[in-house]
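Tip: read the tokens left to right.
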């Protein structure tokens, strides 16, 4: 058998193989021996194999991560909704209606928005047509904006419950007003999503650029680009205005909680003057209370800003820099915002003792160990002021002295909207 010569330029003509295209030709063998470079290695073959392995590993990691985000979001938000539906005490607190509506919005994000975004991100192709691209984009804007507005309403509800007198809170947060606020959390996003997107208002002046970006190589992608007026209007309504309201509300909540802790500590020291360690104990308790409130508020605002600020900053900046933001950065910012739908059940429910007890009852099939004691039953000596679903405990000792009259004690015990079982 006559073999080919080893020079690279003669290989293709001799056997029909192209050494520069190993993915088509397969391993090249001459007289039973692998064709090697002068160094005795296979640089091109190894490079291709390495790239394929790295690409497969990245693909598997991406699929695993996106699947985990969607699964945790679905399970967490479903658990929140079921807990409120099954627990009578949770249904008595108005804040929990906002939390259930928030969980429903986040559940729809994880079911109707994330899967299609994940498929497009993995395959780099959109196969569902232009009309469904508009529908999917409208649902994305609608549901994520609704989720953010619910967070804003929860902060306002907690502001009235903690910073106002109980009678003021009951007058402010009537069932009708709660219904109107929840309705607004759904109607406003609908106005800024389906109406302008389906009418094409967001693409006025940039239609040519959108058409060019729809074709990426041999693939079609679902492109959502916005002009400057829509970017500014949508971002202000969906993020920046709610952010300002949340910051102001939580700042006031923290100041009020800190003042309450100081006053309660003074009253408890006056009532427990006979205890030699009372002053130190109350001072330590006050520090723990203030620290817990600060940590809770920092976690809430920190997660909200971390998840959504990158997307909305990019959303506003991109039209003013000729739409030069890379697609990879857009995808990262968008999915960081989606992750907020997974975190909301943890921040607004899982950190609350009443919700945790309800979850354990559901997951443990109603085990008696986790049954709730009576909230207003005998022996209740404290109230817990909730900060946005996380319980910030302010212990009101039952002081039988001249500083507390019967009307004040009755007012505290009747304020069931901000009262929970003690830790």
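Filled-in amino acids:
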């Amino acid at each position: 058998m006559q073999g080919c010569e080893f020079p690279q330029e003669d290989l293709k003509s001799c056997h029909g193989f192209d050494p520069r295209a190993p993915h088509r030709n397969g391993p090249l063998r001459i007289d039973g021996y692998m064709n090697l470079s002068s160094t005795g290695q296979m640089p091109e073959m190894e490079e291709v194999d390495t790239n394929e392995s790295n690409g497969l590993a990245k693909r598997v990691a991406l699929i695993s991560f996106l699947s985990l985000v969607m699964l945790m979001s679905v399970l967490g938000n479903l658990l929140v909704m079921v807990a409120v539906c099954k627990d009578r005490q949770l249904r008595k607190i108005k804040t929990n209606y906002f939390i259930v509506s928030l969980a429903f919005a986040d559940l729809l994000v994880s079911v109707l928005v994330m899967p299609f975004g994940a498929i497009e991100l993995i395959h780099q192709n959109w196969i569902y047509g232009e009309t469904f691209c508009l529908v999917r984009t409208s649902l994305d804007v609608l549901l994520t904006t609704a989720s953010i507005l619910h967070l804003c309403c929860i902060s306002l509800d907690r502001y009235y419950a903690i910073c106002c007198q109980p009678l003021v809170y009951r007058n402010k947060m009537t069932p009708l007003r709660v219904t109107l606020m929840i309705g607004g959390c759904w109607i406003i996003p609908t106005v800024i999503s389906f109406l302008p997107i389906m009418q094409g208002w967001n693409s006025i002046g940039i239609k040519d650029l959108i058409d060019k970006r729809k074709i990426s190589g041999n693939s079609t992608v679902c492109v959502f680009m916005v002009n400057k007026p829509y970017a500014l209007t949508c971002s202000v309504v969906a993020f920046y205005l709610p952010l300002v309201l949340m910051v102001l509300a939580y700042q006031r909540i923290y100041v009020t909680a800190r003042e309450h802790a100081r006053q309660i500590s003074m009253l408890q020291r006056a009532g427990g003057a006979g205890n030699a360690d009372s002053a130190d104990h109350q001072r330590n308790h006050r520090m723990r209370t203030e620290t817990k409130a600060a940590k809770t508020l920092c976690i809430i605002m920190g997660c909200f800003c971390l998840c959504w600020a990158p997307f909305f900053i990019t959303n506003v900046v991109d039209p003013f820099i000729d739409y030069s933001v890379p697609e990879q950065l857009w995808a990262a910012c968008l999915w960081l915002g989606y992750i907020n739908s997974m975190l909301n059940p943890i921040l607004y429910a899982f950190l609350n003792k009443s919700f945790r007890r309800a979850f354990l009852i559901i997951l443990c099939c109603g085990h008696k160990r986790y049954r709730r004691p009576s909230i207003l039953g005998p022996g209740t000596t404290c109230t817990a002021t909730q900060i946005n679903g996380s319980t910030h405990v302010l212990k009101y000792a039952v002081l039988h002295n001249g500083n507390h009259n019967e009307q004040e004690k009755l007012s505290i015990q009747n304020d069931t909207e901000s009262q929970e079982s003690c830790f």
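Residues 1-40, 374-423 have pLDDT under 50 and may be disordered. Residues 73-272+300-370 form a domain with the Rhopdopsin 7-helix transmembrane proteins fold (CATH 1.20.1070.10).
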